[in-house]
Design brief:
By secondary structure, the protein is mainly α. It contains five helices and no strands.
Amino acid sequence: MRFSLKLALLAGLAAGVTYLGSANAADEAKLREIKGCMAFQNKVRGDLGKQAKAKDVNWDSIQKQTKEWLKVAEDLGKNKPPKGDDASWKEQTTKYMTNVKAVDSAAEKKDADSFTKALATIGASCGACHGKHKPK
């Protein structure tokens, strides 16, 4: 009886881990799509802006988030544009990647002024890409 109970618990645990692993993979796949990349970018950009204004800036947390943002920004450029031509998409996503790298570089240097300016540059650049590539 005890052995059967232990075996049933172990099987349930294995099924749960498998489910969570597949859900995580599905979430990562969605993140790599344009909509997921933009949702991530909007959230992290807002969070980073708030953190940069804090009295005691937690640069370790900021640096971790900018590294994640770099990966997502890289994924954005791998997508096909939903509207507009591929050459423009490549140009826009390359500029975006350059801007995200500037945010990451400022975070690495713990340079609050450069960090804030780099975030503002990204915020000001959204319209150029969206005007050419975001469907209505």
